[in-house]
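A quick word before the example. In earlier lectures we treated sequence and structure as two separate objects. From today on, think of them as two lines of the same record. Here is HTH tetR-type domain-containing protein written that way.
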Amino acid sequence: MPRQPRTGVDERILDAAAALFARHGFEQTSLKSLADAVGLSKAGLLHHFPSKDALFEAAWEQSHVITRHVLELVSPLPAGPQRDRRSLELLTDYALDRPGIVALLFRSMTAPGEDPQQAQDELLLNEMFVIDPVTEMPRAIRIVGALSAMAVLTLLANQQGDKTTWRPLILATCYDALGHQEA
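And the structure line, produced from the sequence above:
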């Protein structure tokens, strides 16, 4: 059972680890690369998380916490543009603050079938945007496009260090990708 992060250090470790797991997958991510990413020795990293498996599980759990929280907030809204916009706003805010965790969440779209937890993530995202990917293929493709744009643009915003300027542009891009007209 993954434990919850204790400190800001744990959150930073989880986000950096999630980014590496999202980029390279579990098998191709070494404990050394995880430690290097957060500026710790392997022993220092293992002080925070007892194993690579525990770190991976904790990162996945954090992505599920985010998804469940967003779904909880948008569930009262009817399917449609307002719900889509609110989902995008919430996911964008998380992605700007925790880019690695959100990248791991979106891995189900970029590397399907690699991790057993991905099926749950796909279902939650489908529920969030009220979509049946089999019968609504054009909408499903637009959602993948919007979330992909969000992933890339929030990473760039973090690299530029200007989240405030980028946020409305990211949201407009994602909303446009879904085919909605600005209100």
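Notice the following. The two ends are 44 Å apart (CA to CA). We will return to this example when we discuss secondary structure assignment.
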